[in-house]
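can u pls check wat happens w/ 2'-monophosphoadenosine-5'-diphosphate
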Amino acid sequence: MTIDGKTKIVGIIGWPIEHTLSPAFHNAAFKKAKLNWVYLPLPVEPEHLGPAVEGMKALNFAGFNITMPHKRAVIDYIDGLTEEAKIIEAVNTVKREDGGFIGYNTDCRGFIESLRRDAGFDPGGRSALIVGAGGAARSVATALAMNGAAAVTIVNRTPAKARLIALLIKENFAGCEVKVLAQNDEKILSDIKRSQLIVNATSVGMGNNPGLPIAVDGIGKDHLIYDLIYSPPETEFLLKAKSRGARVINGVKMLLYQGMVAWEIWTGQRPPAETMAETLLSELQRRVF
Ligand code: ATR
């Protein structure tokens, strides 16, 4: 890679940022497409978010990605939002446009792309159950409702947080029936049975947070089980669901597609999909989280 006076700069802000996989696959894609761009990891502590965004504006960044814990807070420091980002109230991609820094949410599109392309699942008219009520669950619930899901049940340890997402869905997507259940509610079983898609959007199943997000009773061959976690590639939840005959998918393709959509937003070009996928997978294999 040659960096010179014409290099366009993008990057990712987060705290911590050491584990990010994004620089590897974005830079590989710039190289493959022969674009004079560079993608940097940018550690930004929460109390420095405002000055960091101002700094990127002053330094003529072409855009940037945003990860934990800034996806919501960054909204206060940018100049506009796309419709999706406005509804989800979270931004993971910013592009410099004529009106200043504009915030997008490509997690939403990344999730739907992976469902359609890799699992052959169209959410239109289907029922889904989402476990979790953080930022990831918010993007998934919005993506499903926006793409015609008939019903969404949100299950969370803290139901009050799930109710906030339910409210957002009710206000924006009248055609989607939405319901909230606590993690220990016995009615979950009947909601599992009527759902075709079950999504784990909690951190339960990661290395430092082992266990099952919900009991697997009722899960069977008619279900698609989507775990947003990609490290480990097969959580205990996916393994148990698979042994009961369900189809399963992990979060790596969502990560890939959200990155591809961001790359296209910035450059205006179709991203080199194979290069990005190969780089992401080899980085994942190389690392021990
Ligand atoms: P993200 O932005 O990735 O969604 P988050 O906002 O921290 O991350 O949300 C994490 C989700 O995992 C939440 O739904 C959280 O439940 P609470 O809302 O009750 O905090 C859920 N979660 C994390 N650890 C959990 C655990 N041990 N048991 C159940 N739910 C858990």
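Residues 62 and 97 are 9 Å apart (CA to CA).
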